[in-house]
Write a structure and sequence with these properties.
This protein is of the alpha+beta class. It has 12 helices and 19 strands. The protein has 2 domains: 146 residues, no CATH class; 261 residues, Beta-lactamase (3-Layer(aba) Sandwich), CATH 3.40.710. The chain is globular. It starts with 6 loop residues before the first strand and ends with a helix.
């Protein structure tokens, strides 16, 4: 295994924005390699104690120590004797082990802090992995005086006074740790909006501009705002500019505040005539969900989509708001873009969660499906003329990026976040979530994933 592989188990058109982070400082050596295991192993519960060497097996819910790749489970004593059962976890397929090594070397070795990956075939999860650090290592300390020995502490001299600071090792990522998914959030929002359409609480072509204007207290200068429809918001054809600087420049503190600004400003073109990828479209859709349902957007998503899929732990997070089950994405001081993006890009999830959500939109896959076949088909269709896409090989549907080879999914990009989820035409669905800035273009994760599969010998 590569040195950067901290933990591994079996397991587009545009992104959330051109938001990038400054170059990261040099990192210390990554944590030591830990053995991989098979698809039987799953993520730990949210309330479990974080232990770097602990994995969990879904079949028997026992704890596996990676140094032994074996589990000892003590059964409660019967009336006669105490029984102890030992379960051995089968080793990881060599091809998947090679895949993990290649992906880790490419991403963690390229400078990323952490990576989560999941792969499913025909709706069944066949591989899941996590590499790198949940908590990124700090920048290297200043070089101490040559007379001070270096061991498990770092010594610094200030005004002739030597202070010893304990060295705190970075914390390794684990399965179940959630990452920012950025604009993949749009798939979630679109699905719930279309559920409301199927329920008759919205219609795709009803004008909702005036409703949104009243909701946020905007003062439109363009009368065409009133004609904006749900379909146009879902397809980025409502006419709004991209508003990248507004979302990421710190001028606004929430989705409602930037919505008020956007609805009070001019449009790029008449609604339905031009495609411009803008987070404002999905910020507004999140507010519309709240208005229709009479409940917070996040609660509606949990009840209508995540709960029925059995997904727990996903949530809308703030820029500097993280739990012990989420990786720390380094962000510049004073930033607030997660709060401003709202339904357009603020969810955190595991790669397996993304695979589950994408597969739920494929009616040929087993399990619960949130939308009818007819509605899913609408999600795949490009906007009607005169809208023109720059790349004939891909287009934006209703909350989905579509590819001419039959694949579909979404990407996401914000500071130290690159994410992609893709459902391929051959029944394979995968997701890769990155904490870091490699690759610079999130859509390049598709090539990186494909090359890792091809080079490892994995057969899907």
């Amino acid at each position: 295994m590569a040195a950067g592989l901290a933990c591994a188990t079996v397991v587009v058109l545009a992104s959330c924005g051109a938001e990038r982070a400054a170059p990261v400082p040099t990192r210390p050596e990554p944590p030591s390699t830990r053995p991989s295991t098979t698809v039987a192993e799953r993520r730990r519960p949210d309330n479990s104690e974080r232990t770097e060497n602990a994995l969990r097996t879904s079949s028997d819910k026992s704890t596996t120590t990676t140094s032994e790749l074996a589990t000892t489970t003590t059964v409660p004593p019967s009336t006669t004797a105490e029984t102890t059962t030992t379960t051995t976890v089968p080793p990881l397929d060599p091809a998947w082990a090679a895949f993990d090594q290649i992906l880790s070397e490419r991403l963690i070795g390229g400078g990323d802090y952490a990576v989560s990956v999941a792969v499913a075939v025909d709706g069944q999860l066949v591989h899941e992995g996590a590499y790198g650090y949940r908590v990124p290592p700090p920048p290297p300390p200043p070089t101490p005086p040559s007379t001070v020995p270096l061991d498990s502490t770092v010594a610094t001299t200030v005004l002739d006074t030597t202070t010893t600071i304990p060295a705190i090792p970075p914390e390794a990522v684990e399965l179940g740790d959630r990452f920012r998914i950025a604009s993949i959030s749009k798939v979630i929002t679109a699905t719930v909006v279309l559920q409301l359409v199927e329920a008759g609480q919205l219609t795709l072509d009803e004008p909702v501009g005036d409703r949104l204007v009243a909701l946020v207290g905007a003062t439109p200068v363009d009368p065409a705002v009133s004609a904006i429809t749900v379909r146009q918001l879902l397809s980025h054809t409502a006419g709004f500019p991209s508003y990248q600087n507004a979302f990421f420049g710190g001028r606004f503190d929430s989705c409602p505040s930037i919505a008020q600004y956007g609805l009070s400003s001019g449009l790029n073109g008449a609604p339905g005539t031009v495609y411009t990828y803008s987070n404002l479209n999905f910020c507004l859709l999140g507010l519309l969900v709240e208005d229709v349902a009479g409940r917070p957007y996040e609660a509606v998503v949990q009840d209508r989509l995540l709960g029925p899929l059995g997904i727990t732990g996903m949530r809308v997070a703030g820029t500097f708001d993280s739990t012990e089950s989420e990786v720390i994405h380094p962000s510049g001081s004073g930033r607030n873009y997660m709060e401003v993006l709202g339904a357009a890009g603020s969810w955190v999830a595991t790669a397996a969660d993304i695979v589950t959500i994408l597969d739920s939109l494929d009616r040929t896959k087993p399990g619960w499906h949130p939308l009818s076949s007819a509605t899913v088909e609408l999600m795949h269709q490009p906007a009607a003329a005169p809208v023109i896409y720059r790349d004939p090989n891909q287009w934006y549907g209703l909350g989905l990026i579509m590819y001419a080879d039959g694949a579909w999914g979404h990407t996401g990009t914000i500071e130290n976040t690159h994410a992609m989820g893709l459902r391929r035409a051959d029944g394979v669905t995968w997701s890769v979530l990155v904490n870091g800035e490699v690759p610079w273009e999130s859509e390049n994760l598709r090539q990186i994933f494909d090359e890792a599969i091809a080079s490892s010998g994995v057969i899907l």
